[in-house]
Amino acid sequence: MKVTVVGAGAVGASCAEYIAIKDFASEVVILDIKEGFAEGKAMDLMQTASLNGFDTKITGSTSDYSKTAGSDIAVITSGIPRKPGMTREELIGINAGIVKSVAASLVEHSPNVILIVVSNPMDTMTYLAHKVTGLPKNRIIGMGGALDSARFKYRLAEALEAPISDVDGMVIGGHSDKGMVPLTRLATRNSVPASEFLSEERLNQVLEDTKVGGATLTKLLGTSAWYAPGAAVSGLVQAIACDQKKIFPCSVMLDGEYGLSDLCIGVPVVLGRNGIEKIVEINLSDAEKAKLQESAEGVKATNGLI
Ligand SMILES: NC(=O)C1=CN([C@@H]2O[C@H](COP(=O)(O)OP(=O)(O)OC[C@H]3O[C@@H](n4cnc5c(N)ncnc54)[C@H](O)[C@@H]3O)[C@@H](O)[C@H]2O)C=CC1
Ligand SMILES: O=C([O-])CC(=O)C(=O)O
């Protein structure tokens, strides 16, 4: 199993590190345009192999896509991150050009690749990857919901004063400050609805804190987050590589599902060796449907800018 990670920056390196530590891939290639940067990150990570106990071979490349040839999965993290006070949508001007050329180069060298798009604004960059590559729908996956759901569980556990392993919850919709739809109605603590433990007001606070999860970290760090994003990507890569058939909310091209078409937005999907093996249509309440619709309108407006 060969995995390429484009972008050796904060998210790309974290993602490569988590993939290596989980030790399911034979090879990880990191590629960046900054001369020597990917090679340096790869060497540094390889020097953790004997310490962390993995056999994954990590190599770096400066813009040489021939080294990525034959990749089964490729992750696109190349592009600029936001600074405090910015929205993800404001990154579109620079990142659209980067994602366009990177996606085309990846597919040229690995025609059977499954693409995972991370660069922001992620739903629109995923849509752009479809337009550029023409790959089948099951082979382009946007990563946002897995991260947003992890942040939702963090906030739920905090409110419930419970261990995170005891809580479950999912975020669908666009990966944006306004567009996320945390499904508080379906959140649970060990199968018991979270609403049995928390007031409506406290659950709403959890929802609001989840939606601004990325912005909160950007304000604290001065740039956007990387540990949880890297871990979330590695979870998707592992589900595909190991044919796990796990459900994650991912940004995928919809064709009538949830009453939406011609956009990529976060909905639950089953991930396995073929990429997106099924889009799972869950019964949403009228209020949740309205929020998803509103989120879709936001994503479509951003898509209009490419
Ligand atoms: N979807 C999600 O949940 C998340 C998305 N992001 C997004 O991921 C992207 C990367 O974030 P960071 O790693 O923090 O940024 P970073 O600045 O640390 O790293 C980006 C890397 O991309 C490289 N790069 C730029 N153009 C390239 C090209 N044409 N080909 C190859 N490499 C190129 C840069 O040299 C740099 O090393 C940002 O757009 C950020 O908003 C970040 C966190 C979560
Ligand atoms: O907040 C950002 O800009 C980066 C990102 O998408 C996240 O961490 O959720």
CATH superfamily of the largest domain: Lactate dehydrogenase/glycoside hydrolase, family 4, C-terminal
Which strand-content bin applies to the residues? 15-25%
Distance between the termini: 33 Å
The CATH topology assignment of the largest domain is: L-2-Hydroxyisocaproate Dehydrogenase, Chain A, domain 2
How many domains in all? 2
Q: What would the principal axes of the Cα set say about the shape?
A: globular
Describe the overall structure.
The protein is α/β, with parallel strands linked by helices and 306 residues long. It has two domains: 2-143, NAD(P)-binding Rossmann-like Domain (Rossmann fold, 3-Layer(aba) Sandwich); 144-304, Lactate dehydrogenase/glycoside hydrolase, family 4, C-terminal (L-2-Hydroxyisocaproate Dehydrogenase, Chain A, domain 2). Helices cover 42% and strands 22% of the residues. The protein contains ten helices and 14 strands. It has helices spanning 10-22, 37-46, 49-52, 92-109, 122-133, 145-160, 200-211, 213-221, 227-241, 286-303; strands at residues 2-6, 27-32, 57-62, 73-76, 114-117, 140-142, 167-168, 171-173, 180-182, 188-189, 192-193, 246-255, 261-272, 275-279. It has a six-stranded parallel sheet with strand order 3-2-1-4-5-6, with helices on both faces. A three-stranded antiparallel sheet has the order 7-10-11, covered by helices on one side. α1 links the parallel β1 (2-6) and β2. The longest helix has 18 residues, at 92-109. The structure holds 1,4-dihydronicotinamide adenine dinucleotide and oxaloacetate ion. One of its GO terms (molecular function) is L-malate dehydrogenase (NAD+) activity. It comes from Nonlabens arenilitoris. It holds the Pfam family Ldh_1_N. Keywords: NAD, Oxidoreductase, Tricarboxylic acid cycle. Catalyzes the reversible oxidation of malate to oxaloacetate.
